[in-house]
Amino acid sequence: MLLCIDVGNTQTALALYPRPETTEDPDDEAGGADRATARWSARIRTERRATADELALTVRGMLGPLLAEVDGVAALSTVPALLRELRGMCERHFPGVEQVLVEPGVRTGVPLLVDNPKEVGADRVVQALAAYERVGGPCVVVVFGTSTTVDAVSASGEFLGGAIAAGVAVSAEALSTRAAGLRPVELVAPRSALGRSTVESMQVGLVLGAAAMVDGLVTRLADDIASRDGQGRRPVAVVASGGLAPVVAPECSTVTHQIPDLTLQGLRAVFVRVRAAARAREERRRR
């Protein structure tokens, strides 16, 4: 089984997927990234000061008897302070297990057509890969997490760049903290755009406002994708994910797909590609 670990700013997601053999496996289309179903999954709070041993204790404890089935690990961390600890956990507590830690310098197979590829978060790269393999063409990837990211992927699977904005929960916290007359509210879709109370007005601004922003950015990015491809405007798939996607995505007119475990599936896809590349190099050396 392949253990995928996504250490995010707020939460850490884990999942066990059937071990993909090769990208050419007839029962594992496109490496299985878009078809794989997790056998087990969990989500915990990210502890930014956790050590490698503490991370291992948590992961191994949650897996329980499933730990014996782990024969591959794919992981990433968007928290710089935890990247070294995550690497240490994999090396010390999963010895002899094939590992792929997605970080700058790791070849994911996704061309990064941006000014500084090393600045692009590993999560955005694997999300772009998973979305592209899912829809099989140009797409816009929207992730509603601690930040809201809206990224463009070309018809050839290239990461073209995108936008980063404050996440819905971050915006809600800022409102209640900085405005004396406003208090924390539940992040749910309002009855309509006409907020008839302070609470509902905040929900309109936070949820529907985020949806309107995403729709506007998707339209602009779709135009940029079409311009780059040298073709006229054509439909572009819009893939949504992230913790607040179930709340905001239904209010977006442009979202066409929702994939809750997009980052984890992207990690699985990268693991497939890295292993396939390693096998190809080994075969060339043998020849």
Q: What is this structure's SSE topology?
A:
Elements: E1 2-7, E2 11-17, E3 40-45, H1 52-63, E4 72-77, H2 80-93, E5 98-101, H3 122-135, E6 139-144, E7 147-153, E8 159-166, H4 168-178, H5 198-229, E9 237-241, H6 245-248, E10 257-258, H7 262-286
Parallel strand pairs: 1-4, 4-5, 6-9, 9-10
Antiparallel strand pairs: 1-2, 2-3, 6-7, 7-8
Helix pairs in contact: 1-2, 3-7, 4-5
* Beta strands, count: 10
* Sheet with most strands: strand arrangement: 3-2-1-4-5
Q: Gap between N and C termini, in Å?
A: 31 Å
Radius of gyration: 20 Å
Shape: globular
InterPro entries: ATPase_NBD, Type_III_PanK
Pfam families: Pan_kinase
EC number: 2.7.1.33
Pathway: Cofactor biosynthesis; coenzyme A biosynthesis; CoA from (R)-pantothenate: step 1/5
Describe, in plain words, how this protein is organized in 3D.
With 287 residues, this protein is an alpha/beta fold. The radius of gyration is 20 Å and the shape is globular. Helix 4 (168-178) crosses helix 5. It has a five-stranded mixed β-sheet, with helices on both faces. The protein has a five-stranded mixed β-sheet with strand order 8-7-6-9-10, sandwiched between helices. It has helices spanning 52-63, 80-93, 122-135, 168-178, 198-229, 245-248, 262-286, and strands at 2-7, 11-17, 40-45, 72-77, 98-101, 139-144, 147-153, 159-166, 237-241, 257-258. The two termini are 31 Å apart. It is built from seven helices and ten strands. The model is unreliable at 22-34 (pLDDT under 50). Helices cover 39% and strands 20% of the residues. Its cofactor is K(+); NH4(+). Homodimer. Pathway: Cofactor biosynthesis; coenzyme A biosynthesis; CoA from (R)-pantothenate: step 1/5. Catalyzes the phosphorylation of pantothenate (Pan), the first step in CoA biosynthesis. One of its GO terms (molecular function) is pantothenate kinase activity.
